[in-house]
Amino acid sequence: MPSHFSCTMCGRCCRDLRLPLSLAEAAGWLRDGGETQLLCDAIPWPVEPAADDRLAAYKFRRSFPAMSGTLPLRVIVTVVAAFDGPCPHLQADLRCGAYDRRPRVCRIYPAEINPFIELQPAAKLCPPEAWDERHPVLEVAGRYADPSLVATIEAFREADIHDVGAKRKLCDVLGVRTAALANEGFVVIAPGREAMANAIAAVMREDEVVGEDANPASWILISNRRSTRDTLASVDAEARAPDALPDLHEYLGFHAASGE
Ligand code: SF4
Ligand code: SF4
After folding, report:
1. How far apart are CA 210 and CA 215, in angstroms?
2. Whose CA is closest to atom 1 on ligand 1?
3. Is 249 in the pocket of ligand 1 (CB under 6 A)?
4. Distance (Å, rounded) from C-alpha 154 to C-alpha 144?
5. DSSP 3-state of 192
6. Domain definitions of the chain by residue range
7. Residue nearest (by alpha carbon) to ligand 1 atom 5
């Protein structure tokens, strides 16, 4: 079944958000006076997956290696624009005040960036009338119809992979060494506009390309579930509850805390 779509300009996708950004976009967002955060999660990676595991290959390219105790990890760092209420660029008439320089993720919505996630109109913020069958075709069987949309999604994914090495360096510069377990939540770090702008400028100057590190850094895994921490401890990982997080860090869990 094709998905038909036309934006109604309702403005719902411009409120109360964490928008994933490339590092170059984050630098621009900060220059415009916006706030950014880092979201960190980590995937246990005890053995290398099969060569034909496409999902694992996708995760691998978006992540850098680390250790938690003796457990190998892949850490994914997402830089986001963060705002409560309306986006600072949202105008009273619901138009974007930064239209020509808006982040790629704004240009892509409601399409999916992750190639392994199927477009689900019901899961999107767009109202039902945006999905009327009389509108142009957005997607058929997982393929987006508009070549410029496809190119923007590709550019987002390429920047995401290109930035991995610089994000690892960004964590070094900002002293970030904690991550949530993937699929359980994120550790959110909000160092402040000036610290983020300086750190991003420093790591982008170096333009590091990620390699497989012979001495990956030691990270602490954060979980609000005792059962998760116990499981991680049983494989000699370093696991802590969210109250162990340093200043400017918080835990954003997908599940209610349990067994505290
Ligand atoms: S940058 Fe523009 S399109 Fe993106 S969230 Fe803000 S107002 Fe909306
Ligand atoms: S939520 Fe959907 S319909 Fe509303 S402005 Fe955003 S993209 Fe357009």
Report:
1. 13
2. 102
3. no
4. 12
5. coil
6. 3-253
7. 14
